Amino acid sequence: MEIPAIQQLLCERGIDGWLFCDFRRSNAIAYQALGLTTHIVTRRWYYYVPSAGEPRGIVSALEAGALDALPGDKLVYRTWQERETALAEILRNAGRIALEYSPRNAIPYISRVDAGTVEFLRSLGKEIVSSADLVQHAVARWTAAQLRSHLDASQRLMRAKDHAFAYIGDRLRAREEPTDYEVQQLMWADYARAGLVADDPPIVATNAHASNPHYLPTAGNATPIRRGDTVLIDFWAKLETPGAVYADHTWMAFAGAEVPIRQEEVFRHVAAARDAAIERVRQAMASGNPLRGCEVDDAARDVIARAGYGDYFVHRTGHSIGEEVHGDGANMDNFETRDERLLLPLTCFSIEPGIYLPDFGVRSEVNVHIDDGGALTVTGGPQMAMSTLL
Predict the structure, then answer these.
(1) To the nearest 10°, the Cα dihedral for 233, 236, 239, 245?
(2) Which of 281, 285, 283, 321 lies closest to 298, judged by CA?
(3) Does the pLDDT of residue 38 top 90, yes or no?
(4) What angle do CA 47, 51, 53 make, to 5 degrees?
(5) How far apart are the C-alpha atoms of 331 and 349, rounded to whole Å?
(6) Residue 184: its pLDDT value, please?
(7) How far apart are CA 59 and CA 157, in angstroms?
(8) Helices (H), 77-221
(9) Are residue 73 and residue 134 in the same domain, yes or no?
(10) Which of 111, 225, 248, 309 is most buried, by the most CB atoms less than 10 A from its CB?
(11) CA 309 to chain centre
(12) What is the pTM for the complete model shown?
């Protein structure tokens, strides 16, 4: 993000400046927000962007060029005493300072600066405020090229999903029983052929395994997929190109010719919760009313709670999506945390409510992108009924 744009955000929020701090790449947000690429980083550096005026940096004498790509003068320290003196100097005229800090660690994606640094800044008389909203503007908004990469990745993923479901059906019709790991590896190979990359292979889960949102089949725990099984596939990836962003979807199927009434009922409630969350976002964007991530979670969770399954919806409704599958923008969460960050144009997030019963689990996941006019693009479906594989 350009320095003048950061300064405009600071002025709008009445914040004197944003202090970026890093030690050994512990603060990835700082690198993203500043567009900084530094190859060797083994010592602490600081970069202060005031709401007005020239930014200033602090670097170790051992890595004096660490911030050369950024504007402003750089103070060089050798000892810890010189480092603390330099910090006091560049912050001399600052009162309220934004930091990658989240009160009570409410949003751990933002909590990148250690408590000791916060303690030292407070000892200087500084008021520390969270940079959470600033971060959304700086790192969570997509370019037009990134949106195109997401749409492309989503289409390629959907083809891999279709191949997986068809493969399961073909094997079952042949009276064979493919394993969840086998199907996962089939999709993983499809990713490679399609030019997709991901941090982990997809989740393929049946029955009770589908009630573990982060179940991952392996060669050692491979489970046969049989007729009558409920099948969940959670699949995410991005194009293998610089700056590409993720798509992340979940689809459900039943290994039979007709979905049983119970599975159909549960899926119907999950789909209704998903659609209620999307509609909540759509209405807010159309009316120009501010909407917080926690409110989107409430919209989905209320539907499932009214259906009597509230205790079986055990995670947040959705997460920010970016160059990492779990991005640094607002999450749709009033369950694991209370995320009060506003949903912003040009950001993307998942909507993925679920009901996880002892014998089977159901989740439906789509991605929602908000354009700069407030219009929504929904990818990954939405799936309207559980697929049948026979």
Answers:
(1) 150
(2) 281
(3) no
(4) 75
(5) 7
(6) 98
(7) 44
(8) 80-90, 115-123, 132-135, 144-173, 180-194
(9) yes
(10) 248
(11) 25
(12) 0.94
Other CB atoms closer than 10 Å to residue 15's CB: what's the count? 21
Task: Report how far residue 150's alpha carbon sits from residue 321's, in angstroms, rounded to the nearest whole number.
Answer: 10
Beta strands at 366-370 and 376-379: parallel, antiparallel or unpaired: antiparallel
The contacts of residue 38 (CB under 8 Å, 6+ apart) are 31, 66, 67, 69
Residue corresponding to tokens 């990818």? 379
Task: Spell out a b/e string for 48-68, using b for 16 or more CB atoms within 10 Å of the CB, else e.
Answer: bbbbeeebbbbbbeebeebbe
Separation in Å, CA 345 to CA 68, 282, 326, 349, 376: 32, 12, 18, 11, 9
What pLDDT, in 10s, does the model give residues 362-371? 999 999 999 9
Distances (CA, A) of 134 to 101, 139, 319: 12, 9, 17
On whether the CB atoms of residues 239 and 157 are closer than 8 A, the answer is no
Q: Distance between CA atoms of 33 and 190, rounded to whole angstroms?
A: 34
The total number of residues shown for the chain amounts to: 390
Q: What CATH number is given to the structural domain containing 247?
A: 3.90.230.10
Structure tokens at 227: 């007729």
* Same domain as 298, residue 225: yes
| 224 contacts: CB under 8 Å, gap ≥ 6 | 177, 178, 179
Query: Region 161-172: what's the mean pLDDT?
Result: 98
Residue 133 domain boundaries:
3-139
3-class DSSP string for 64-77: CCCCCCCCCCEEEE
Residue reference for tokens 């050369």: 68
Residues 112 and 232 in one domain: no
Two tokens at 39? 């190859």
Report whether 74 contacts 64 (CB < 8 A). Answer: yes
Closest by Cα among 378, 87, 386 to 262: 386
pLDDT band at 39 (very low <50, low <70, confident <90, very high): confident
Q: What does the mean pLDDT of the chain come to?
A: 97
Does residue 199 sit in the same domain as residue 250?
yes
Instruction: Quickly tell me which residue has 């202090």 as its tokens.
Output: 19
Instruction: Give the pair of three-digit tokens for residue 286.
Output: 């159309």
User: Does one domain contain both 154 and 94?
Assistant: no
Determine what percent of the chain is predicted with pLDDT higher than 90: 99
Mean pLDDT score, 164-185: 98
pLDDT at residue 1 in the model: 85
